[in-house]
Amino acid sequence: MIAVNDEAVEPGGPGVTRRQVSDAQTRMASRGWWDRDADAYQAEHGAFLGDVDFVWCPEGLREADARLLGDVRGRRVLELGCGAAAAGRWLAREGARVVALDLSAGMLRHAVAAADRSGVRVPLVQADALTLPFPDAAFDTVCTAFGAVPFVSDSAAVMREVFRVLRPGGRWVFSVTHPMRWIFLDDPGEGGLVAVHSYFDRRPYVEHDAHGVPTYVEQHRTLGDRIREIVGAGFVLRDLIEPEWPEGHEQIWGQWSPLRGRLFPGTAIFVADKPNDDA
Ligand SMILES: C[S@@+](CC[C@H](N)C(=O)[O-])C[C@H]1O[C@@H](n2cnc3c(N)ncnc32)[C@H](O)[C@@H]1O
């Protein structure tokens, strides 16, 4: 989030606002953005993410250490908003039966390239997390690191869709930008230490082109909102992890920096279970 106008789209040039946009505009913006940005995203973050590795967040927490998904051997796992699917390939190497899904063909092209480089292949599906092309109870585990959830206008609907495709007893783990980050500017330096936005302003962050058409939309939910969406879908929330910035980790990722990371959380990781039928 950079400095934003409140509502108004200034005529004559690209800009940034906080304002409501429709579902259709959000989907179009996301698809276009991630297709256009795929090469730049991978150029900037590909080395940090690896080709076969599961990194939950810019703080560098790895599934190999955190084990939030439990033992995945033999499990049917869906990676949502997979991008280049490094996490999906790591899970496959751990013995999981993985499907990796993303809205963006541009991101999935990087998944194909990384599969060629690493020799680890998982089935790739281009689809929207809001309408998953899978039958009920098709998976034991669903996960995503910063995929899909922050980029849909109805994240409660994603929770319900994930609930549907999980078997009873299945696990859902997702990471997002920590909600408290939304009160600050997207600045990894001193400028990102001053509260300027209301935590309670749920209007999305919208970048738009010269015609006012949204080109990037990211959604804010408070911690309470996220918990209500998870529980409202039927899940039991097991944990909320706020990874601390590790000593000696100096890598900046956008607004995530050692300066800010030492003071307040940048990532929230939600761990939820679909209850067993007999629960
Ligand atoms: C910040 S990237 C994260 C990618 C990957 N998980 C990682 O850790 O690098 C967000 C991803 O979510 C995908 N995405 C956005 N909206 C989506 C939607 N509605 N359904 C599925 N994927 C979506 C984007 O295409 C993009 O690949």
TrEMBL record:
This is Methyltransferase domain-containing protein. SUPFAM superfamilies: S-adenosyl-L-methionine-dependent methyltransferases. Pfam families: Methyltransf_25. Residues 1-24 are annotated as: Disordered. InterPro entries: Methyltransf_25, Methyltransf_Superfamily, SAM-dependent_MTases_sf. GO terms for biological process: methylation. One of its GO terms (molecular function) is methyltransferase activity. Keywords: Methyltransferase, Transferase. Residues 77-170 form the Methyltransferase domain. Coiled coil: none annotated.
